[in-house]
Write the structure tokens for this entry.
Amino acid sequence: MARRGISELRSQRWYASADMRGFAHRQRTQQMGLRREEFMGKPVIGILNTWSDMSPCHAHLRDRAEAVKRAVWAAGGYPVELPALSLGEVMVKPTTMLYRNFLAMEAEELLRSHPIDGAVLLGGCDKTTPGLLMGAISMNIPAIFCPAGPMLNGRWKGRTLGAGTHTRAYWDKLRSGEISQDDWVDLESRMTRSFGTCNTMGTASTMTSIVDAMGLTLPGASSIPAADSGHTRMASACGARIVEMVWENLRPSDVLSRASFENGARVFMALGGSTNAAVHLVALARRAGVDFGLSDLDRAAGDVPVLVNIFPAGDRLMEDFFFAGGLPALVQRLSGHLDMSARTVTGTLAQMIEGVECYDDDVIRPLENSVTKAAALAVLQGNLAPSGAVIKPSAASPHLMRHKGRAVVFDTHADLVARIDDPALGITADSVLVLRNAGPKGAPGMPEWGALPIPKHLLAQGVRDMVRISDARMSGTHYGTCVLHIAPESAVGGPLALVRDGDEIELDVAAKRLHLRVSDDELALRRADWTPPAPRSLRGYTALFCAHVTQADQGCDFEILQGGPDEPEPEIF
Ligand code: FES
Ligand code: MG
């Protein structure tokens, strides 16, 4: 690999110039107590840190940033830590998805506006992985993703507990009287045992594993538990490697190709991953200028069965996955389905699996013994979803994969909360629960409202799943027969806006079909009658979001952010 000289690095436009500005940049760096020789003539490594006191999953990232710095210094670089929006999934309202693009913009602009030659991106809680990477891909300077790592396994009264998945499961048990209020309080302190991202196959581990397979992390980095000392060593190794990557000028555009996205999609399916990844992968591809969409994801789901036995599709947790060999062992299992010549930040996928073994065939299943017969994702089409919708068959009920039922429509999430338990609605186990105005513009931010609650009287009868459809998303840790991401969404006039109580809706997952059994003529009449939701008075970022966000099938990125690194370098004066 040809190595660049120091004068070719962008930081040197700030530091090496002989004019008054150059003086000011050197002066201000010395103001922080650094000697000239500590930073002059060195690659500047930006450490984008999504740590905050409101992000428990990232509670250790200040320590990890120190490990990165240590290694950057040792490798002859100059590390600088730049705080970025933390997006703790559970704390941020109304939904972190509203702010993913904010983080993406921030990451890109932090890198552009500062004298940064290469970046280590510290994140992992759901939206932080796509957010940081979308920005880094658009900026296209050498970058390496350092995943926060999953939290340790949870146990309670002898039972395995997974973050997210079991919150919902035990909430249903509380509502149906199977556990006591004291149990519920006790569970608060048992389910999330350590810092780190959710230990289930939620959006966090889905996304960090996918980007690991796409070559954007050190090989296997995504599987290392956050609290393992190996995690700190991994962070340190990121620091060492990024300095080399700057000399090599190995940029995201050198790592990512259509093959990497196809690989990422296949790993997504083998993980039994979160449906959220269907939005994020499309957004990442559009940043990278790679032609990749829902149909590619659907094809990948048909090619690769669910092999990773982790909640919610399976019954184990990320710590088990790590001990089984982690992502490299999964990549090895899938190697016949992957393009092993695809690049990583250190080499190729083929190199990633050299000497790799799987130590637990129950956690990482052989191809002939998949976790479920059902696929991790299916993309549905039909008159209710002209631009597509998704469902996660592996986390749904087999008996509902082909279902016809009468719609019970909730116009907003507030309406859902107010009325779902109302016996007067006459909801039966066969009803199809419909939620609208929950999409990217409608909610706004497309919250994880898609696993609509089962009405109390049906829970009491033992009903645990129903067909639910919406333009919302669903948490990767949840389960249920939930049709999600309906596009176009109702708020922009998608057919979901036209559904009425009592309409018959047909779901046929095998046929990839979602159909509203209402005639075209009747739908045309209803459309003529339809008025868009009253415009809300929005301000600031939310106004910007609603003005620019694209639909779910296009990744929900801002249309002004798609595409690549054609932005000129900032003028320096
Ligand atoms: Fe952060 Fe689940 S809440 S990863
Ligand atoms: Mg989540």
About this structure: The domain at 42-152+194-353 is CATH 3.40.50.2300 (Rossmann fold).
